[in-house]
Design goal:
Mean pLDDT: 83
Strand content: over 45%
Largest sheet: 16 strands, mixed
Order of helices and strands: EEHEEEEHEEEEEEHEHEEHEEEEEEEEEE
Radius of gyration: 30 Å
Structural class: mainly beta
Number of strands: 25
Shape: elongated
Number of helices: 5
Distance between the termini: 75 Å
């Protein structure tokens, strides 16, 4: 008994889209020899990387030709194909371009080398200014339409009638603008005490400032576990909250109220010093035997861009969508084409994830001791102990996860009942790697080079790598020690062998040219 919807015209073919990857870079360098023992190298660099998807039509025109009604004018000019799902058939996946994307880096570095007596002294500095620009719309910015066959028994028939089971409409995004600065300073000395012993020692300083929002308003956000509020930068950011965000259920406060830094929600840490030291010693009784050792601390700098990660995920109060579920009453659908949306939607349970403001940059300690032995004139054998310890890795804890219990679960156990998951990232993860490495390398010869080795390692961690900036959440957030065990991505035994052979002639034969 459902009326057949009359469209103004047929849906046009979606056609193809063109993907543009644009990369531009440039380097200017100047090498200056002040004296035979004093050399300076200065480099200035620029990199601009963009990724754009472009199609021959706009999503607005596509839906207008079909006679669809909705608040689509807010995203005029965006090329997009809304996702349409028809049970049992192939629908559209929701083609959406990444417009106005740019990752621009401006970098300079300067290195000074001074060769004086038994010392080779190096000092230098480098600085990176990183700028990220992005419009990250959801595929449902022109609506998402799902047909299940619930009303006629056939999903395609529901589609022909224009009666979806569910529709979704997302808030249009604005241009995001995030900036970050990384600074490094170092000094080191290579000191040859005698013909058999050389030592290296140095110190590096790094400031990996947390990325911060810029532009019209700061799109980054955070979470305050003291009261369950989501935190935005300032009053101006409050004026850009998505109309689909459930502000009545999930309160929002500004950074000044929460006591958070308003630019990035992360505190800056300035005392980041990383010492390094090493030595090489040739045994007098056996000139073909060399003992080497080294230790150093290094920053895990990718965590400085946490703000970028937060924006790329497209979550938080600035991104939102409403879902509308249809039903039939007295033979009439609650909504149908060409009016597939209601004034209010059914709100999905919210998730929130943010880092604790006091989080620091994780660091790695690396050390090794090796024994090298020449085997004749062409081979070199090495036995080495190599270790790594990573500290302060970011690990996500779902603060809404109740303690394990045999008592049946109740929502009264939730700390934040307004969230499905309230995740806070803390400096809680650790990793410890130790290995024995044996290798043999053919170091001489005219044409043949051969290298083979065996590694036996043990890698223990409570923060298994998942390919993202933070690892998998603990199964039980109240017992992190229960997570400590073998790292699943590290092999206990590893063997490798490589060989290369240079053809015994300098010119390719004419019949191969």
């Amino acid at each position: 008994d459902l009326p057949v919807t009359s469209f103004e015209g047929p849906l046009p073919a979606t056609g193809n889209y063109v993907e543009h990857r644009i990369a531009a870079s440039g380097v200017v360098s100047e090498t200056h020899l002040f004296s035979p023992s004093l050399l300076n190298e200065l480099r200035l660099g620029y990199t601009d990387m963009r990724l754009n998807y472009n199609m021959a039509f706009s999503g607005y025109n596509l839906l207008s030709q079909a006679g669809m009604q909705g608040p689509f004018s807010a995203v005029i000019g965006v090329e997009a194909v809304p996702p349409i799902g028809i049970a049992g058939l192939s629908g559209t996946s929701g083609l959406l371009p990444a417009n106005n994307y740019g990752d621009r880096d401006y970098e300079w570095n300067d290195n000074l080398t001074w060769d004086v007596g038994k010392h080779i002294i190096r000092v230098g500095a480098d600085q990176i200014f990183d700028r990220v620009y992005l419009i990250s719309n959801a595929a449902t910015v022109f609506g998402g339409y799902s047909f299940s066959g619930l009303y006629t028994g056939n999903a395609y028939a529901d589609f022909l009638l224009g009666v979806p089971y569910q529709t979704t409409l997302a808030t249009p995004a604005t241009l995001g603008n995030i900036n970050g600065t990384l600074l490094g300073l170092y000094a080191e000395d290579q000191y040859q005490l005698n013909p058999r012993l050389t030592i290296n020692y140095g110190l590096r300083y790094e400031y990996n400032g947390p990325y911060h929002g810029a532009g019209a308003y700061n799109e980054l956000f955070s979470f305050n576990p003291q009261n369950g509020d989501e935190v935005v930068a300032d009053q101006n950011a409050l004026n850009h909250i998505s109309p689909y965000f459930p502000s009545a259920v999930v309160p929002i406060e500004t950074a000044s109220v929460a006591g958070y830094p308003s630019n990035s929600f992360l505190q800056s840490h300035y005392l980041n010093f990383y010492p390094r030291a090493g030595f090489a010693y040739r045994i007098a009784a056996n000139p073909g035997t060399v003992v080497r050792g080294a230790y150093g601390l290094y920053a895990v700098t990718e965590y400085a861009s946490y703000g970028v990660v937060g924006m790329l995920e497209g979550t938080g109060p600035f991104r939102g969508s409403a879902t509308f579920t249809n039903h039939i009453t007295n033979g009439s659908a609650l909504f149908s084409f060409p009016h597939p949306f209601l004034s209010t939607g059914s709100l999905a349970t919210q998730n929130v994830a943010a880092a604790a403001p006091a989080n620091t940059i994780p660091y790695t300690g690396q050390w090794n001791v090796s024994l090298e032995q020449s085997l004749g004139s062409n081979y070199l054998a090495t036995v080495a102990y190599v270790g790594t310890a990573v500290r302060n890795l970011w690990l996500g804890f779902n603060l809404d996860q109740p303690a394990p219990s045999i008592t049946p679960f109740s929502t009264s156990e939730l700390t934040y009942p307004e969230y499905h998951a309230a995740t806070q990232y803390l400096n809680a993860g650790n990793d410890n790697y130790n290995s024995l490495q044996i290798s043999v390398r053919r170091s001489g010869g005219r044409n043949l080079t051969f290298d083979t080795g065996l590694t036996f390692s043990r890698d223990l961690t409570d923060d298994t790598d998942t390919g993202t900036f933070a690892g998998a959440e603990p199964e039980n957030r109240l017992c992190l020690s229960c997570e400590y065990g073998n790292n699943s991505i590290t092999r206990r035994w590893a063997y490798y062998a490589t060989a290369s052979y240079r053809l015994p002639f300098d010119r390719i034969p004419y019949f191969l040219e």
